[in-house]
Amino acid sequence: MTRALSVASSPDFRPGPNPRVGCVLLDPEGATVSEGWHRGAGTPHAEADALSKAGASARGATAVVTLEPCDHSGRTGPCTRALIDAGVSRVVFAQSDPNPQASKGAQALRAAGVDAVGGHRSAEAAELNRAWSFAVTHGRPYVTWKYAATLDGRSAAVDGTSAWITSRAARSDTHRLRGECDVIMVGTNTVVVDDPQLTVRDSDGRAVAHQPLRVIVGERPLSGSHRIFDDAADTLHLQTRDPARVLEELHRLERRHVFLEGGPTVAAAFLRAGVVDEIVAYLAPALLGAGRFAIGPLGIESMTDILRFTMTDVTVIPPTIPTDEANIRVTMRGSVQQHNEEGPYICSPE
């Protein structure tokens, strides 16, 4: 299973409507017959990939899979049928499939006489697909809000300048996180003021082959001259201020993970709506003393209504050039949800 989890994490996976999955086929003596992994929607599932490499050697083998084999036909056929037809005798999987359209794979395998056992290292497998699992069970994309700020919480100076608060290494790390999502989102004000391109680039500054959908939120009309409308990636302008409507549309488009990079107004709107699931904060060792805050008003007037998240990681990002300084990346998770009108926002930690 360790190896299956490793191949599932392959860098050639394309984020989208499907999960990361790895599969290792073992012969009756426990030796590896073949390995397979899923590379994204429309490509063979991990089980099919491993079976195609194994050929006749798959008969009597044990399939170790990070996710319960699917039992439905979508862009590809059901993995349960492929395993049964190949003569696999046993299937060991980690995470049960949370997708109601594809679940009950273990049940189908057992009905065909295949020994199917689940739950081994399920927490690690679930973490591998935390955004996808959330999306298919909650009916909306998982939302990661990313922001960069000084130690006093400022994202721009009084004159509006904000380039660059964080270091080159921190910005490179942001591109890595962008590449793990299938949506990058900002508000109309960010487009007008900063004119970002919102693409994913590698450490050498080159655009990567797979680009997330660029999404703009807000009612303000925009000129096609902005860089976000170039041909480097697809762009969608959702002319609404309602976070629920935005996420509903993106879920309909089978988008699973939103990387929210909007300014303080958009960020506050998503927090007030209770749809921020993760926060990634890049903090620079600097002070401005005045200027724009990273987050707008949340309607909180008392400590009883404070929003608290569960900190999951703190990483010092060292400089890559002599003129830069180290930055800190803090990752927090939690489930912010509307409570009531008097005490509107609470956070339930995971």
Describe the structure.
- The chain is of the alpha/beta class and 350 residues long.
- The chain has 2 domains: 1-132, Cytidine Deaminase, domain 2, CATH 3.40.140; 141-334, Dihydrofolate Reductase, subunit A, CATH 3.40.430.10.
- Helix content is 24%, strand content 25%.
- It contains 10 helices and 17 strands.
- It has helices spanning 2-8, 46-54, 79-86, 105-111, 122-128, 130-138, 168-178, 188-194, 243-252, 264-272; strands at residues 22-26, 32-37, 62-67, 90-95, 115-118, 142-149, 154-156, 183-187, 213-217, 235-238, 257-260, 278-283, 292-293, 310-317, 327-333, 335-338, 345-348.
- It has an 8-stranded mixed sheet with strand order 10-9-8-11-6-12-15-14. Strands 2-1-3-4-5 form a 5-stranded mixed sheet. A two-stranded antiparallel sheet has the order 7-13.
- Helix 3 (79-86) runs parallel beside helix 4 (105-111).
- The longest helix has 11 residues, at 168-178.
- It is elongated and about 70 Å long.
- The two termini are 25 Å apart.
- This is Riboflavin biosynthesis protein RibD.
- Pfam families: dCMP_cyt_deam_1, RibD_C.
- NADP(+) binds at residues 148, 164, 190, 194, 263-269.
- Substrate binds at residues 162, 178, 198, 201, 261.
- The active site is at 47 (proton donor).
